[in-house]
Amino acid sequence: MSAIELIQSDITQLEVDVIVNAANSTLRGGGGVDGAIHRAAGPRLLAECIKLNGCPTGEAKITDGFNLKARFVIHTVGPIWYGGDSHESDQLASCYRKSLSLAVENNCTSIAFPNISTGVYDFPKELAANIAIREVQTFLVTNKSISKVLFCCFDSENYFIYQRLLDKL
Ligand code: AR6
Q1: Architecture per CATH, 3-167
Q2: Residues labelled catalytic
Q3: Of 11, 29, 120, 122, which residue is most buried, by most CB within 10 angstroms?
Q4: The ligand 1 atom nearest the CA atom of 10
């Protein structure tokens, strides 16, 4: 059975060890999924994030989950889409790899990802989904400690793209 699952949901409601946040490099909150996670986790999340001194694009940092059902939040900073010639795909791939590694280091066995960079950062959704699925699949070949990876889509467009791509696996 595949460890990869697809769900259309608000990521803040998921009961997994860790949820991933599509943050910005200040790690001081924002709109979209970032805003939803900060609202649901409560103000202690921002206080912990401020102590982290930001995060470069393509990297990831971990905090407690506070009021969330998830034990942890991994904050990763996806690339802003500038047309594709500015290493955007490599940076997005790095977000998935670094987040998965951090989850393993913190003994997490289940993780949920939002569709990083596909909102206000404008990364093309189909390309982003291909990168996300490829990176997760590759990681799972060599890392057996993660038993569940949830792709959590909020908008129907992303959900149907993932459904079509995952059906082909
Ligand atoms: N649960 C799951 N997914 C969600 C939720 C939710 N509650 N809300 C939105 N999405 P975006 P980005 C989806 O814009 O493109 C923030 O202001 C949404 O449908 O949240 O990486 C940060 O602070 C989309 O598919 O993140 C940064 O400044 C996906 O989340 C900037 O936005 C990502 O959309 C990051 O931009």
Answers
A1: 3-Layer(aba) Sandwich (3.40)
A2: 34
A3: 11
A4: 1
Rounded to whole angstroms, what are the CA distances from 60 to 5, 43, 63, 163? 22, 20, 10, 26
For ligand 1, say whether the CB of 32 is within 6 Å of any of its atoms.
yes
Give the distance (Å) from ligand 1 centre to CA of residue 129.
14
Domain range summary for the chain, segments of one domain joined by +: 3-167
Task: Show the tokens assigned to 27.
Answer: 């790690």
Task: State the chain's mean pLDDT as an integer.
Answer: 97
Q: What is the pLDDT of residues 9-63, one digit of tens each?
A: 999 999 999 999 999 999 999 999 999 999 999 999 999 999 999 999 999 999 9
Strands, E, within 119-162: which ranges?
148-153
Model confidence, pTM: 0.98
HSE, CB side, 13 Å, CA atoms: give it for residue 149: 27
